[in-house]
Amino acid sequence: MEHKHHIVVVGGGAGGLELVTRLGNRLGRKGKARITLVDAGLTHVWKPLLHEVASGSLDASANEINYRAHARKHHYEFQLGRMTGLDRQDHRIVIAPFHDSEGNEVVPERHIRYDTLVLAVGSTANDFGTPGAQDHCLFLDSLPQARRFHNLMLNAFLRKNHYAKEGHDHQLPITIIGAGATGVELAAELRLASRELPVYGMNHLSPGDIRVSVIEAADRILPALPARLSLAATRELQNQDVQVLTGQPVAEVRKNVVVMKDGTEIPSEMTIWAAGIKAPEWLGRLDVETTRGNQVAVKQTLQSVTDPDIFAFGDCAACPQPGSDRPVPPRAQAAHQQADTLFKTLRHRLDGGEPVPFVYHDHGSLINFSRYTTVGNLMGNLSGRSMYVEGKVARLFYASLYRMHQNALHGPVRTAIIWAMDRVSRAMQPRLKLH
């Protein structure tokens, strides 16, 4: 049997799934290569939407993509499991055994051989070793974590509504540690959820009873974005009755309390950690060079500096930018651009061609405040200057980001159908998912 070049992509996040979709449609369908996706989950949800799943404003089941079904339609294979090892000499990766919810082994440990390996495993929250963070904080790295947060939030709302009815203390303090895009957008979603409660019969609990606070160690929220955007976001959060605390890091997280560096204690019955990211720790144990944050060190071609047969991109890769001493930022638009470049490189690779260097183009940033407003800055392609946008125009651009992702996975016709179905669903379904 003729050996087909085997491209194995580990990680079915935004970048990984876009890459295998294009490779499958172009190479797998024509039999030019064998394409395999490895992921520890059965379904994909666009990670920038997880805060909406957590708040209940988005039904994850309506936005999930089943890897098996998608693989069959787009001519690639899917392997369920978590990568735990790498044998570079034998060109094999190790996939851990898969167990069901009761601990029974469903699939034993497997080894998958590759000709080209692509690591696209994303990132996890970085608590910077803060005492108590792992024990007392909620995280939004994955769909199961977002769903857990949603269930805990609903139970807290129901409990406080009952306390209010009985005349007991019923304030619910919620604290978000970290005021990057995820933290800021989650705060707005939580405020929306608090204002929707009377619609569902929780008439004894008012929005003011749910105190939402955002803590940022830097001197302003959204510290990685332009100051004008940060100022607009601060004003919007304050207009939505969200407390914004900046300029001081969190020293410790205890049960129902967040302790600041100066000793100030902030009551918090639900604490969410959104203050930083790092690559998964197991990457640092592989036989490839990684950074202190476990990111795979890659060249501008996205090839590992250790092995030319291994590529990495997205949040799990430290990719240099020409003319800068800082790597490509861990953003969704960067992963999307890298997937496009890597697709070209892997096509050239089959024909013996050279890899394509990756050049990052910053198209700006958009911050969505739930159904209230959207603000952001868009980068001009010709002038290089940024243009500030807000309101309906910014909201349109923000919505287009997800549609671009869907278009990469489904094509324009199917994406148009999904968009129409979403419009109908939003008109017929409740605004807040209360189950």
Principal-axes shape call? globular
Largest sheet properties: 5 strands, parallel
CATH topology of the largest domain: FAD/NAD(P)-binding domain
Q: Determine and state the CATH class of the largest domain.
A: Alpha Beta
Residue share in β-strands? 15-25%
Structural class: alpha/beta
Count helical runs.
10
* Poorly predicted tracts of residues: none
User: How many distinct domains?
Assistant: 3
Radius of gyration: 22 Å
Strand order of the largest sheet: 5-2-1-11-22
Reported CATH architecture of the largest domain: 3-Layer(bba) Sandwich
Measured between the Cα atoms of the first and last residue, the distance is: 52 Å
Overall strand count:
26
**If you average the pLDDT, what whole number results?**
88
By CATH's scheme, which homologous superfamily of the largest domain applies?
FAD/NAD(P)-binding domain
Helical percent range? 25-40%
GO molecular function, one term: NAD(P)H dehydrogenase (quinone) activity
Keywords: FAD, Flavoprotein, Oxidoreductase
Domain FAD/NAD(P)-binding: 6-339
Organism: Marinobacter segnicrescens
